[in-house]
Amino acid sequence: MFKKIEIWILYLVILISILGIIFSAVLVRQGIEGRTSFGAFSIKFLTDPIVYLSRIPEQVVIYIFKPNQNRLDDPWDEKRPYWDVSGFEGKGLDKEAYMLLSRYDGDLEESIVEIIDLRNFETLHTWNPDIDKIHSSIDTENPEFKNLRRDQNNFIYLIHHPFITDDGGLIFQSASPLLKIDSCSDLVWMNSEERFHHSLEKDFEGNFWVPTHIYPYSIDKKIVGIDEDNYLDDGITKISPNGETLYKKSVAEIFIENKLDYLLFSVGDMGFDYDPIHLNDIHPVLKDGPYWKRGDIFLSLRHQSMIILFRPSTNKIIWLDTGNFYHQHDIDILDDQRISIFNNNSKDFFNGDQVDGYNEVLIYNFESQKYEKYLNNSLIENEVKTIKNGKSQILPNDDLIIEEFEGGRILYFNSDGSLRWQFINSSSEKNIYTIGWSRVLYDKKDIDKVNRLRKTGSCNNENK
Q: What's the rounded mean pLDDT across residues 217-231?
């Protein structure tokens, strides 16, 4: 028989339970919003474990409906009408050109990079680095990389914006250390000073500009605190061909020193913004022009919907613009007065971030100070719309290539707007997987790199 409980004990238990739930909810909110410091002390030792526990149901749901974050056609994601295509479909190019194709291979369940002959879509060479082995040598005492072995392994890693070097190697990253591998996918060097992310571009001196997340933070701890998950301190970083850091500068510092800090710390009434910049492209200027100088760099700041022309030699913002594009990516210099921008055209509505119509390719003319949309009807007709990532490249013959990240596809348009070919990254089971910012190799220097690699022989990467 059950023992009788005094009613006041029951009420006390209910009251304590309610107070416990409220207290836990407060701690979860404080932890998620980053409000864990009160004056001289922090309560992260309380908030971190409670936030972790609160996210377990969400992680279970994600594991059931999206067990592989690189797969795009699972129950979690929006279905696309063109996913019945597999691989390359359409007509190859007439002139010699290649694609450095970065993609997640759904059969291997690993990220690979391939050289594709765009005349016949033949695969000429494959890199398949062992990310588990490479990352096993990282010093996980560095706060930036304490969880790297868990969240950056072969199964998850997506090789991002690889660059082919003269010796047939690749330089790349994936919100990870910056890596160089040789033609047989073995590690040559690794820079693990920061987490490198998004774009990788070569400047006129042969060095590379890559975005990073800087930690310890470069700006005052009174502004962003000291805990490693308080703030994304996006930085611009110049790296030598041997992997050495030559220059590093926080974009937040650039804003502060150019009197734009109000855009970071005094907009709206939603509290401190963890990721107010979101640098996603650094494009170096290779030649002097009427509106820029060799050594300048263009920056794309997604969360500001802003493009900046910055001069590192003087620490000055030369030009900036906003409001003509939304959450954009990928700046390219077309000539001495025009740039192109991949406009994601995505906006934060009440039910989340979504593309307001379709993606766009914009051309800005510095002389006329006007924007025009390039082959816009072609993007609409082919339903090009990715919220995240995305890339465009206008070739010297005015053809256009688009990488649609959330569609797992690449589209090649003739200069008249007609679709010449498309590629869908599907597995043998017809599942669709992500792609990681590929490049078209069309100029003589890049073609020579490919032909040298072919002459030296390939490696058995598939089994590495």
A: 83
Q: Output the CA angle 144-76-156, nearest 5 degrees.
A: 35
- Count of residues for the chain? 464
Q: What is the pLDDT of residues 154-200, one digit of tens each?
A: 888 999 999 999 999 999 999 999 999 999 999 999 999 999 999 99
CA distances to 49, 57, 130, 276 from 272, in Å: 22, 27, 39, 9
Residues 6+ apart with CB under 8 A from 410: 99, 101, 401, 402, 403, 404, 422, 423, 435, 438
* 400 and 413 Cβ atoms separated by less than 8 Å: yes
76-87 burial: b if 16+ Cβ within 10 Å, else e: eeeebebbebee
- Are the CB atoms for 341 and 330 separated by under 8 Å? yes
pLDDT, position 139: 65
Helices 44-54, 7-33: crossing angle, 10 deg rounding: 100
Give the integer Cα–Cα distance in Å for 309 and 286. Answer: 13
Higher per-residue confidence, 70 vs 10: 70
CB 427 within 8 A of CB 433: yes
Is residue 109 pLDDT above 60, yes or no? Answer: yes
Q: Please give the angle made by the CA atoms of 12, 15 and 19, to the nearest 5 degrees.
A: 140
- Full-model pTM: 0.88
Task: For residue 67, say if its preceding peptide bond is cis, omega within 30 degrees of 0.
Answer: no
Rg (CA), the chain: 24
Residues 428, 420: Cα–Cα separation, whole Å:
24
| 155, 205 contact by CB (below 8 A) | no
